[in-house]
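Extended Data, panel c. Modelled sequence:
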Amino acid sequence: MKFLYLCKKFQLEYFRPEGKLSDSIVALPVVQSKLRLYCLRLSNKILVLGNGGVKSTRRYEDDATLKGYVMTLQRFERLLKQGVDDGSVIISEKLIETDNIFEL
């Protein structure tokens, strides 16, 4: 039941901040597992699922695979922001609108 609620609202309290302070990268916190799923949380209603894996180091930066997943999401967020700035991307509370094709 709680999972269904998470699908309706992506409030920050349900996620663990990852990445840099200047980005929107979060991870789904898993209490009894070392699995991590990295996401880009753009609003309480927009969550872009990234990739993840087993976290065997203290920081994702110390694992080349996990660091690559986070860096891909960071690149995607930068491209989205550039699109918003040039008018080719519109991000509302619930929707991302664009005809852009993003090459990561």
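Residues 1-7 have pLDDT under 50 and may be disordered. This feature is highlighted in the accompanying rendering.
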